[in-house]
Amino acid sequence: MFFTRKDKNTNNEKPTVSENDVLVNAMSNFCATIYFLPDGTITDANPLFLSTVGYSLEELKGQHHSMLCPHEITSSEDYKKFWPKLASNQCQQGTFLRKKKDGADLWLEATYFPIKVDGDVVKIMKIASDITTAKQLADNQEAVYNAINRSNAMIEFQPDGTVITANDNFLSAMKFNSVKEIAGQHHRKFCKDQFYEAHPHFWAELAQGEFKTGQFERINKQGNTIWLEASYNPIFNHAGKVVKIIKVASDITDQWYGPTFVDIS
């Protein structure tokens, strides 16, 4: 590991600072940092880490890392192997669920570095970033997406109208057996010619960020008409560019044709 070398002070010269020392100091200044013995015992932590977890150094020093973890983590098979791997010089990195002093969830993007001296791991340095807010937002968005996906027909398009994928509800409504039948095809596949004659700029407008909602006449695999209550939703990337369109739909064919119409959903 790169933290083992120290520059020697000779001839009463002013001690020099190695690049390794500068690197460690920089990480400590800008990252939440904590140190452990190879068995997970806490030896030190910087103010950024302490403020993140809500403990003082006196409360942490000499305690085991497990005090910062929820029970479901410490009781897992992965955690039982966690410190033995670090002690055997295996770096660990990823997104980790931890807990603050008040018991609140804490999500950290972190790396655990084994530090070796004379070939032996003598301590572990961890640098971390608090990503709790971003993780919870992403989890909430995923939960909403999954809820919509379970109860609605969904299909995703490239901004030009090319099909990317579709869920089982959409395939069932349109009488397709597999997404392979429609992936790479254009949205025109589901429409009568009159739709694009009336809406020639449909995808250009979506690609510019305009969303579309309404009741749409479409054609299923068998050539039968199906009516969908749908919204076409542009999805933007970090730069504000539309990268895909997600359509969320419900089959309302029965509402158009009445109870004598054969249900094709």
From TrEMBL:
Residues 212-264 form the PAC domain. Gene3D superfamilies: PAS domain (3.30.450.20). Pfam families: PAS_9. InterPro entries: Bact_Chemotaxis_MeTrfase, PAC, PAS, PAS-assoc_C, PAS-like_dom_sf. SMART domains: PAC. This is PAS/MCP_signal domain-containing methyl-accepting chemotaxis protein. It comes from Marinomonas primoryensis.
